[in-house]
Amino acid sequence: MPLSHDHIRTTVETYLARHPHEREQLGGLLDALDRSGDDIASRSTFTGHVTCGAIVVDPLGRVLHVLHLASGKVLAPGGHTEPSDESLAAAALRELHEETGIPPQAVTPWPDYETVPFDIDTHDVDAHQGKGEPGHQHFDLRFLFRLHIADEPPVVLQEEEVGGIEWRPVDKVTSPSLREKLLKLPLQAEPESANASALIYNDRGEYLLHLRDYFPGQIWEPGMWSLLGGGREFQDATLEHTVRRELAEEAGLDLADLTPFGTEYATNDDGATVPIAIYAGRWNGDPRELHLTEGVMLAWFAPDALHRLRITDTTRDLVRRHAASLPTMPIGTEPEEERLASPHGTVPNIIGVHLYLERPDGTVLLGLRHPNSAFAPSTWHALAGHCEQENAIACLIREAREEAGLHIDRKDVELVHVVHHIGKPSHPPRMGLFFRARVWSGEPELREPDKCTQWKFWDPTALPDDLVPYTRLAIAKIQNGELYSETGWPA
After folding, report:
1. What gap in Å lies between CA 190 and CA 201, rounded to an integer?
2. How far out from the chain centre does Cα 367 lie?
3. Angle at CA 274, nearest 5°, toward 271 and 276?
4. Residue 142 pLDDT more than 90?
């Protein structure tokens, strides 16, 4: 479920990756997360539980506050989570609507804070004898939103809990930690301009690419294969609206489902960095039947054919990362038409290098992947990376240094397992090499918090439930001294 213990932990660790100096002051929250038997999302867990708040900023830069009758305090809207909440941010939006009547459609997440809290506050709550509630702590995860309608919205107060509302300037925000963070934002400016693109794929594992017109100096990336998409315009309430509008305008395409895949960054002709929100969607149509209004043509391409195209490295890597993120289908569950015969000729295999780091006490190192990761988001995995123009051990040494600050010498590395795995038969096969480092220096640290939010040593007999399946298999085989395994291949 979205509000699982692991989901909340991942959210908190992602926040702390941005604010590492707050780790000590959030010690109570971290201790509660370490108590795996507690339901930290439940309001009846009186060792401390999570609440969610909505920080809403209007076009004038003012911040919404409500008078909470129970405490007599003027605070941001917010409250307890409910089992029906699909995410922590959704819980904040629900509380905003219940307490003030402001609908979720009237606000939009602040860029780069769609799933990450803007602030986390812990505070004591007095005992309530009438409800039989002892004193306890609230761990308040506050999400930042912008009111995107010009007129002040009509307010319908939750009269039994809220006595009124007030729009306060930032310097009058009641919470000191929140006020400090808000003062660092350009609240009266428009949100950072951004682009949105669509990563469209079909059931054959191919990706829809758009060949741009060759007009150097007039358009971005002239004559190159790219994704459909474009820049946000004033009428777009969200970046999903942007990408849907661009698909309709450029190709007359309307997809039923589009899901956020991540954010990429590109450099325009002026040298400025432009954020691009990527939305993924499945479509099985014929691009020749679309009415293309911009560019030369649309066509399907398999990920292993991209090297033949004039395409940016970022787009090529994006497609390959998405292909790698598609779920592996268990053996025997593929439709009969997809159970392909062994291919004739050579098929390139993607090489992944993994670090098996085992302490003297037998525990092994795993990292919790970022919620926005293209592959296995919010899931534990070995420290790993793809081979670039380098040998496998050089890749291992580089990835260990770049991701975790660990220093390993070539002479201290040994191959301990190889797993040959694949998703659907149409997906590129992968060879996962697991290397043991007998000796290393340094302690794991978060060098790339946009990719990994936590490092932890785990007992091999008590590995986390949300672990990449082939990593779990490889660890078990290493423990048994087995050098090779396979997974995902049709019988």
Report:
1. 33
2. 15
3. 150
4. yes
Q: What is the pLDDT of residue 425?
A: 59
Residues 6+ apart with CB under 8 A from 448: 402, 403
Task: Note the pLDDT tens digit of each residue in 289-302.
Answer: 888 898 889 999 99
Calpha distance 332→47 (Å, rounded): 46
350-356 and 430-437 beta bridge pairing: parallel
Ramachandran class of 439: left when φ > 0, alpha when ψ lies in -120 to 50, beta otherwise? beta
| Phi, psi (deg, nearest 5) at residue 314 | -65, -40
In this predicted structure, the answer to whether residue 32 has a pLDDT above a threshold of 90 is: no
**Other beta carbons less than 10 A from residue 391's beta carbon:** 11
What whole-number distance in Å separates Cα of residue 385 and Cα of residue 366? 14
What is the C-alpha separation between 125 and 128, in angstroms, rounded? 9
Q: How far apart are CA 428 and CA 351, in angstroms?
A: 11
Unique residue bearing structure tokens 């629900």: 94
Q: Residue 196's pLDDT band (boundaries 50, 70, 90)? A: confident
Q: Are 212 and 296 in contact (CB under 8 A)?
A: yes
* pLDDT tens-digit readout, 419-469: 998 866 556 788 999 999 999 999 999 988 888 999 999 999 999 988 998
290: phi > 0 → left, psi -120 to 50 → alpha, else beta; which?
A: beta
Alpha helices of 199-346 — where are they, by DSSP H?
Answer: 239-251, 313-325
The length of the chain is 491
Residue 37's pLDDT band (cuts 50, 70, 90): low
| Nearest alpha carbon to residue 227 among 280, 268, 305 | 280
Query: pLDDT value at position 340?
Result: 39
Distance CA 490, CA 426 (A): 11
- Residue 311 pairs with which residues in a beta bridge? 225
Q: CA–CA separation, 444 vs 455, rounded Å?
A: 6
d(CA 183, CA 165): 21
Degrees, nearest 5: CA angle 49-50-54: 150
Is the pLDDT higher at 151 or at 45? 45
Q: In the predicted model, is pLDDT for residue 366 greater than 90?
A: yes
Closest CA to 59 of 118, 145, 147: 147
Please answer whether residues 228 and 253 qualify as being in contact, where contact means their C-beta atoms are separated by less than 8 angstroms: yes
Under a CB-based contact definition with an 8 Å cutoff, are residues 165 and 99 in contact?
no
Asked whether the beta carbons of 423 and 329 are under 8 A apart, the reply is yes
DSSP states of 362-384: S-EEEEEE-TT-SSSTT-EE-EE
Q: What is the pTM of this model?
A: 0.44
